[in-house]
Specification:
This protein is an alpha/beta fold. The chain has three domains: 70 residues, Methyltransferase PG1098, N-terminal domain (Arc Repressor Mutant, subunit A, Orthogonal Bundle); 188 residues, Rossmann fold; 115 residues. β17 and β18 form a beta hairpin. The chain is globular and about 70 Å long. InterPro entries: PG_1098_Fer, SAM-dependent_MTases_sf, Thump-like.
């Protein structure tokens, strides 16, 4: 079937329909009746999804795509590049190879990468694609990675694992022990074959829960793409028993906003203040990390409230998140809301506030959008307050 998909006329048909509605296309007559139309339609859907996420694949001819779900679940090239910067050495084995995006980038840093994939068809697809991408230092092995690791019987500089979060018996799961492979159960065996392990997990995994299941964790990387947390990376080093460093990174078109701190090293005591001239909202990677007090102390800014996770200062700083200039601050009450916001247009954010964004919009007839931003929150005196702001661009000089 793979060779049929690569026929010139079929590839031309796929490329010609990338921007078309596949559901409508499915109602039309199959121009290639000798091939299941669903297979062709899947290629169109999967390739269109890869345009922004996997530009190297999208721009390469004769790439074969697996199911659209596989494309949705795979790492993006941007997060794969970040992972490749964490590793070094001669040899890496990926126990859960999948579509091979991470391995493509690992291969730029490591002399030999071994891609293990239990699904025979997917393994063949990936091997074909690596040939199209002109990658020559990746070996593809089909089968159970535990058995492959035993059979190869050698020391690796890194073992990389992206456990499947779908279990045939339990459906979608959230504990590492319920994923495939069962990393906590196999950890001692893995450390017989390497001194360093990198594990990718979904952002839904609770950090404290992950730490309770794993050992020898040296660092946890929280990776966000355009302010949406995409993955957690767990860096394990054999026999390591020290403090865990949390490293956050928000990858944007322009830059990577990074912040890190050591977990539970000592108590951190941030300052608190009523709203000052500027307001700072941390990016999603920092929010996931839980390092709310550490951010305040590191940047020498004040928290509005213990649970609000918004920060304020009279000075503008380069901050890993959004920065605003506060133009108006008032207590949340009927009189002020009617005067300041009712019937007008604002972006709305709530932090440590009893009402939802939807309820606030409906209650005060506030339209979405515009150039003004409003934060509904609680201040250090436990008063419900509203802050009206203008957003400050990354260059920290232009107010929008």
């Amino acid at each position: 079937m793979a060779s049929e998909i690569l026929r010139t006329e079929i590839q031309q048909f796929i490329n010609a329909n990338l921007s078309n509605d596949v559901t409508k296309l499915a109602l039309k007559k199959n121009p290639f009746p000798e091939i299941d139309f669903a297979v062709i339609l899947n290629q169109i859907t999967a390739k269109s999804k890869s345009e922004n996420k996997l530009p190297s694949w999208f721009q390469t001819e004769n790439i074969i795509y697996p199911s659209k779900v596989s494309v949705e679940q795979t790492s993006s090239e941007k997060t794969a590049l970040y992972k490749s910067e964490l590793i070094a050495g001669e040899k890496l084995i990926d126990l859960t190879g999948g579509f091979g995006v991470d391995d493509y980038y690992f291969a730029k840093k490591i002399k030999l990468v071994v891609h293990c994939e239990i699904n025979t068809e997917l393994s063949e697809i990936v091997q074909h694609n690596f040939e199209q991408l002109k990658v020559q230092n990746i070996e593809c092995h089909t089968g159970d990675s535990f058995e492959i690791l035993k059979k190869l019987h050698q020391k690796w500089d890194w073992i990389y694992i992206d456990p499947s979060r779908r279990n045939d018996a339990k459906g979608k799961v959230f504990m590492l022990k319920d994923c495939l492979p069962n990393v906590p159960e196999n950890l001692d065996f893995y450390f017989e074959n390497t001194n360093t392990i990198l594990i990718k997990t979904a952002p839904l995994l609770d950090i404290s829960a992950g730490l309770s299941e794993l050992k020898n964790v040296k660092a946890i990387h929280i990776i966000a793409l355009e302010n949406e947390v995409k993955e957690l990376l767990w860096e394990l080093h054999k026999d390591y028993t020290g403090a865990v460093t949390l490293k956050t990174a928000n990858i944007t078109k322009e830059t990577v906003d990074a912040f890190e701190f050591v977990m539970q090293q000592h108590a951190v005591f941030p300052s608190y203040s009523l709203p000052k001239k500027y307001l700072f909202e941390p990016n999603s990677a920092i929010m996931k990390s839980g390092g709310f007090d550490e951010v305040a102390v590191h940047y020498n800014i004040s928290k509005l409230h213990k649970h609000s996770h918004l920060y304020t200062s009279d000075e503008i700083i380069s901050f890993p998140g959004r920065t605003f200039k506060i133009t108006t601050a008032f207590l949340y009450n009927k009189t002020e809301m009617k005067q300041q916001m009712q019937g007008k247009q604002f972006h709305i954010t709530t932090r440590n506030f009893p009402e939802t964004v939807e309820k606030i919009r409906t209650k005060w007839k506030i339209k979405a959008g515009g150039n003004l931003y409003s934060f509904f929150t609680t201040d250090d005196n436990n008063n419900k307050i509203v802050l009206i702001c203008t957003k400050i661009n990354q260059n920290e000089t232009t107010i929008t």
